[in-house]
Automatic annotation (TrEMBL):
Protein modification: Acetylated. Deacetylation by the SIR2-homolog deacetylase activates the enzyme.
Organism: Pseudonocardia ammonioxydans
Record-annotated AMP-binding enzyme C-terminal domain positions: 536-617
Protein name: Acetyl-coenzyme A synthetase
HAMAP family: Ac_CoA_synth
Record: residues binding ATP: G390, E391, P392, D414, T415, W416, W417, Q418, T419, D505, R520, R531
Ranges for domain Acetyl-coenzyme A synthetase N-terminal: 34-86
Catalytic activity: acetate + ATP + CoA = acetyl-CoA + AMP + diphosphate
Gene that specifies this protein: acsA
């Protein structure tokens, strides 16, 4: 990226100065207190050992950390079973009757699943998977809607020491296939269909396409929508046949602390998604610890709801592993927030008495658009702590969340982290922090991060730079599946000399030293809190027969944070029809079917040329100027300076609604 491009990303300095102290009542009985910061700094490994004691280890570790940058081993020599920690342990402790999951289906059906129920379901699923040949180290792909079976499946894999690779339900067959192939998965767990905005949409029909010609031996199918499905005898198995008939007794075996737990694919700066690898002991320790302190979770009292999908890391860490390790009672909702009406979330908060509500800024902005009179109709007095994740939250949305949802009573924790970090890294503590609207504030106790300049030197207060993590942390990724070189190159080469992990985000310190996240500094877009690489969308566009070249940028979007804007050059001799509204729509749909609806460009414009440097690099900064309707910036490094005039003059014609 050009220097000027970096600095423009980093110069968006905020002037927010309001602060909100924690409510006195919450502070008085908070799970974490101010002294934790200094305690963790004084003895980082001792602090993490203390957090690891939240879990039940069948064999205690010998060494807290072995660090040979960039390769970490945490709790070396320790053994545990992750699923046992999330399920059986609570039953053994006498909490089998506690509801683990209040599941709310989109059509209005619901299920209350206690820890004892969860234990039976996970054991049955583990037995069924074992009967299909799944064992230690195998990979299981999962593409499911937000139904309890998704949780059972993940925990059953963990119980068996098999790795799950969960693929978001909105991803295309091609995207699922690429992930199955990369991980060489043996079994796929899916469903007949999924409810989307009140209607059943097919699922297995799509997953069948993904499975063709791969390593998948068995497909386990949950019946959810009663949709007719294509069936391959010998390969396909109904969940209600295989799982329901399996024994509910299963003895969990212990695995090494560093035994792989899951792979989760995320977008990077190239077209090929990265399989982020997480392991067991360190991951679960930080998942449990952060869930405990950032949400001030009180087992047996709190009713927790994280609105993420299980297909993203937030669903892994803050629906499955963190909350269940802590014996939480949580709500899982299957559907969209406006089905059957725009008050659905508040109705659910009211129904279950939700005390902790964790969501994404993009959804808060959507609620703002729908109007404050909608949440006003519901009793939200049960809420105690609110959280956000996935993208920077603008102060306006933060204030709205505080006023209209938290009714001025609830602290907001803006949690910064990534698929790679495994769990929250930078966030306020709800009983300690005097929070500022829009700031993630400071690294959690035990975590060390800094904002640095190009040379790796910490910048001063009031200055911006790159966010790095300068000390290893327990839930850090252990690598990219099958690609050690890419792991080193992507995260550890930018500040190799200093040994810093480079997060890819820009950030700044305000005058008080609080951290403000400023978005990605690489070619990764953030659309509704989801990471999509520009290259991925460009590859999808050029795979269409009419397109020869494409450049994609993320442009500021009021609701989704960023929206995808594409500039395409069509094949020589293309007709006017190929440039028309119909053809543009077909192109947008093509991207949607190649990657998934989340990657569908908001806007595509046909251009004759793309702005390139003399060395042939596309200058996205200029395209972003066009996409955001700004005056085009410095064009002096362009090979052909007339290109931008042509592009801006054509912009109005190709606007897509
Ligand atoms: O750019 C940051 C943004 O989301 C990226 C990580 O995306 P992903 O791996 O999909 O995980 C999302 C859920 C943890 C980061 O590099 N991001 C995440 N949380 C925040 C954020 N940006 C600003 N503030 C946040 N709280």
């Amino acid at each position: 990226m050009a220097e000027s491009e970096k600095s423009s990303a980093l110069s968006a300095l905020s002037t927010e100065s309001r602060t909100f102290p924690p409510p006195a009542e919450l502070a008085a009985q908070a799970n974490a207190t101010e002294d934790w910061y200094a305690r963790a700094d004084a003895d980082r490994e001792g602090f993490w050992a203390e957090q690891a004691d939240r879990l039940l280890w069948t064999k205690k570790w010998d060494t807290v950390l072995e660090w040979e940058a960039p390769f970490a081993k945490w709790f070396v020599g320790g053994e545990l079973n992750v699923a046992y920690n999330c399920v059986d342990r609570h039953v053994d402790d006498g909490n089998g009757d506690r509801v683990a999951i209040h599941w709310e289906g989109e059509p209005g059906d619901s299920r209350a699943i206690t820890y004892a129920d969860l234990q039976r379901e996970v054991c049955k699923t583990a037995n069924a998977l074992a009967a299909m040949g799944v064992g230690k180290g195998d990979r299981v792909a999962i593409q499911l809607p937000m139904i309890p079976e998704a949780v059972f499946s993940m925990l059953a894999c963990a119980r068996l020491g098999a790795m799950h690779s969960v693929v978001f339900g909105g991803f295309s067959p091609g995207a699922l296939k690429a992930r199955i192939e990369d991980a060489e998965a043996k079994v796929l767990i899916t469903s007949d269909g999924q409810f989307r905005r009140g209607k059943p949409a097919p699922m297995k029909e799509n997953t069948d396409q993904a499975v063709e010609g791969t390593t998948i031996e068995k497909v386990l199918v949950v019946k959810r929508t009663e949709t007719d499905v294509p069936w391959t005898d010998g390969r396909d198995v109904w969940w209600h046949d295989a799982v329901d008939s399996a024994s509910d007794q299963h003895t969990a075996q212990s695995f090494d602390a560093e035994h792989p737990l899951f792979i989760l694919y995320t977008s990077g700066t190239t077209g090929k998604p990265k399989g982020i690898l997480h392991t067991s002991g360190g991951y679960l320790t930080q998942a449990a610890y952060t869930h405990h302190v950032t949400f001030d979770h009180k087992p047996g009292e709190s009713v927790y709801w994280c609105t993420a999908d299980i297909g993203w890391v937030t669903g892994h860490t803050y629906i499955v592993y963190g909350p269940l390790a802590n014996g939480a009672t949580q709500v899982i909702y299957e559907g969209t927030p406006n089905t059957p009406h725009e008050g659905r979330h508040w109705e659910i908060v009211d129904k279950y008495g939700v005390t902790i509500y964790y969501t994404a800024p993009t959804l808060i902005r959507t609620f703002m658009k729908w109007g404050e009179d909608i949440p006003a109709k519901y009793d939200l007095s049960s809420l105690r702590v609110l959280g956000t994740v996935g993208e920077p939250i603008n102060p306006e949305a933060w204030m709205w969340f505080r006023t209209r949802i938290g009714r001025e009573r609830c602290p907001i924790v803006d949690t910064w982290w990534q698929t790679e970090t495994g769990a929250t890294m930078i966030a306020p503590l709800p009983g300690v922090t005097h929070a500022k609207p829009g700031s993630a504030m400071r690294p959690l106790p035990g975590i060390s991060a800094a904002v640095v300049d190009d040379s790796g030197t910490r910048v001063g207060n009031g200055e911006g730079g790159y966010l790095v993590i300068d000390k290893p942390w327990p839930s850090m990724l252990r690598g990219i599946w099958g690609d050690t070189e890419r792991y080193q190159e992507t995260y550890w080469s930018r500040f190799a000399e200093q040994g810093f992990y480079f997060a890819g985000d820009g950030a700044k310190y305000d005058d008080d030293g609080a951290i403000w996240l400023l978005g990605r500094v690489d070619d990764v877009m953030n659309v509704s809190g989801h990471r999509i690489s520009t290259t991925e969308v460009e590859s999808a566009l050029v795979s269409h027969s009419t397109v020869v070249e494409a450049a994609v940028v993320g442009a500021a979007d009021e609701t989704t944070g960023q929206g995808i804007v594409a500039f395409v050059i069509l094949r020589a001799g293309s007709t006017d029809e190929a440039k028309g509204a119909e053809a543009i729509k077909a192109l947008r749909d093509h991207v949607s079917s190649e990657i998934g609806p989340i990657a569908k460009p908001r806007q595509i414009m046909v251009v004759e040329e793309l702005p390139k440097t003399r060395s042939g690099k596309i200058m996205r900064r200029l395209l972003r100027d066009v996409a955001e309707n700004r005056e085009v910036g410095d064009v002096s490094t362009l090979a052909d300076t007339s290109v931008m005039d042509l592009i801006t003059s054509g912009m109005q014609d190709s606007k897509e609604e």
